[in-house]
From TrEMBL:
Its cofactor is FAD. This is Glutathione-disulfide reductase. Pfam families: Pyr_redox_2, Pyr_redox_dim. Its EC number is 1.8.1.7. PROSITE patterns: PYRIDINE_REDOX_1. The gene is gorA. InterPro entries: FAD/NAD-bd_sf, FAD/NAD-binding_dom, FAD/NAD-linked_Rdtase_dimer_sf, GSHR/TRXR-like, Pyr_nuc-diS_OxRdtase, Pyr_nucl-diS_OxRdtase_dimer, Pyr_OxRdtase_I_AS.
Length: 450
């Protein structure tokens, strides 16, 4: 008999935590999990899933414009935000139920409580009880970071709030130039809001290939999304009519109906009791872990956004899965962070895997070859939508190996998942050339670039 209540206790039922709990239980461990908000975590409740559903909803705005040239005459077009918001919320409820069922079916005990480390092997729960576990996994994720600017805390919203808005703002300023800023800029714009992105530097989507970012910016600007670069917020004030006056540094002051902060996410470590065990944290409060996701305290592990390695759901899931396999199935697994594909679900979306052109140039000493295809998707041509796609393949000139693929255009993330397999497998440009095109598709461009 174990002297602990559980073999494994997971704090946080999000992407990483749920996977770790389920796999550990499937290996025969006695598992408990604590969730302070809703099972499913950021991705399911207020991230990837509801965001993608809003992206789908927003896309109809373009489809309804484009369909005219395809012979459709749709009368009485109108958009009802409350209807979409509530359908999305309903789907999220359904998914949360499925996640709970999965945990239950695997005999994982769910504690609907906030959990904190109490010292040693003990975890304190907000219902006043406490439990002990041989191993503890911290999978508490991250939360939106809102800088300390006068009026921001009271008047700005963050991505969590978007899914609950009573009404769409007529004018919205979005702070930040990353994933969330560009995704929500596309969503709000398609729904008819006037969108202004305010970025503190002179570029968006740092880390993505420069040409893809430029193309997104150019398309977004043509659509009517405004960008203010090298700009900062000095003060946010609510006016009598409910609108916000933004006092700016670097650009003109603005009047908007909503201000969304999308300036990064910070590890959720506040009040977690890390100090009780001397668990080390690094930059921005991220819990420091080794390649096995083990902290400096032997029986405490951490996965996902709280470790700030790559803040993506599939990464958190892999990390959680590996911890469970290693602890309860005697495996020796680490997560491979090379060639993790990623996408920005902007309008149009960007997708990427491997090195950008400039990264490859730096790392491979300039001996690279770059192939690009700049084209208008067939559907856009007939629709009269003057929006060009751009695909890029970066190769190591010495070996012909494809080291990066970057795309912006319709369905780029769907195409990228398959292309990423080829890059991860180390295929050469010649392998792409040897593959017969699948016609007529957009993805055939990947095997036609010469
Ligand atoms: C708007 C948005 C869109 C996104 N879109 C994508 C996307 O398209 N693709 C993608 O791959 N990634 C996306 N992400 C990122 C993705 O959601 C995260 O990387 C992922 O959810 C991280 O998983 P996690 O397990 O580390 O944490 P989370 O999923 O955040 O789970 C942590 C859980 O812990 C709970 N918790 C925190 N503290 C405690 C405590 N003390 N006690 C009990 N419970 C606690 C939280 O309530 C939460 O449920 C998006 C994020 C956001 C915000
Ligand atoms: N499609 C996806 O996979 C997806 C979607 C959304 C979020 N995510 C994950 O969530 C994380 C958080 O997303 P995010 O968009 O908040 O962060 P991010 O790190 O992508 O972007 C933050 C942006 O805010 C800017 N910024 C920071 N402080 C600022 C300030 N004071 N004023 C103005 N701009 C400022 C930064 O320069 C940067 O451009 C991402 O890193 C990503 O890993 C992924």
């Amino acid at each position: 008999m174990s002297s602990y209540d559980y073999d494994f206790f997971v704090i946080g039922a999000g992407s990483g935590g749920v996977r770790a709990a389920r796999i550990a239980a499937s290996h025969g461990a006695k598992v408990g999990i604590a969730e302070e908000y809703r099972v499913g975590g950021t991705c399911v409740i207020r991230g990837c899933v509801p965001k993608k559903l809003l992206v789908y909803g927003a896309h109809f705005a373009e489809d309804l414009e484009d369909c005219v040239r395809f012979g459709w005459d749709v009368e009485g077009k109108a958009f009802d935000w409350a209807k979409l918001r509530d359908s999305v919320a309903h789907e999220v409820d359904r998914l949360e139920g499925l996640y709970r069922d999965t945990l239950g079916n695997n005999d994982v005990t769910v504690h609907d409580c906030r959990a904190t480390l109490a010292g040693g092997h003990e975890v304190a729960l907000s219902d006043g009880t406490s439990v002990t576990a041989k191993y503890i996994l911290i999978a508490v994720g991250a939360r939106p970071h809102v800088p300390d600017i006068e009026g921001c805390a009271e008047h700005a919203i963050v991505s969590n709030d978007v899914f609950k808005l009573d009404a769409l703002p007529k004018r919205i300023a979005i702070a930040g130039g990353g994933y969330i800023a560009n995704e929500f800029a596309g969503i709000f714009h398609q729904f008819g809001s006037k969108v202004t992105i305010v970025q503190r530097s002179d570029t968006i989507l740092r880390g993505y290939d420069e040409q893809m970012r430029d193309r997104l910016m150019q398309i977004s600007m043509t659509k009517g999304i405004d960008f203010k670069f090298n700009s900062h917020f000095k003060k946010v004030e609510k006016q009598e009519d409910g609108s916000l006056h933004l006092t700016m540094d670097g650009c003109e002051d603005m009047e908007v109906d909503a201000l969304l902060f999308a300036t990064g996410r910070l590890p959720n470590i506040e009040g977690l009791g890390l100090d009780k065990l001397g668990i080390e944290t690094g930059e921005r409060g991220a819990i420091k872990v080794d390649e096995y996701s083990r902290t400096n305290v032997d029986h405490i592990y951490a996965v996902g956004d709280v470790t700030d390695r790559i803040q993506l759901t599939p990464v958190a899931i892999r990390e959680g899965h590996a911890v469970a396999d290693n602890l309860f199935d005697g495996q020796d697994r680490t997560v491979d962070y090379e060639c993790v594909p990623s996408a920005v679900f902007s309008h149009p979306p960007i997708a990427s895997v491997g090195m950008t052109e400039s990264e490859a140039r730096n790392k491979l000493g300039g001996s690279i070859k770059v192939y690009t295809s700049d084209f208008r998707a067939m559907k856009n041509v007939l629709a009269g939508r003057n929006e060009r796609s751009l695909y890029k393949i970066v190769t190591d000139a010495n070996t012909d190996r494809v080291v990066g693929i970057h795309m912006i255009g319709p369905e780029a993330p769907e195409i990228m998942q398959a292309a990423a397999v080829a890059v991860k497998a180390g295929l050469k440009k010649a392998d792409f050339d040897n593959t017969v095109a699948l016609h007529p598709t957009m993805s055939e461009e990947l095997v036609l670039m010469r």
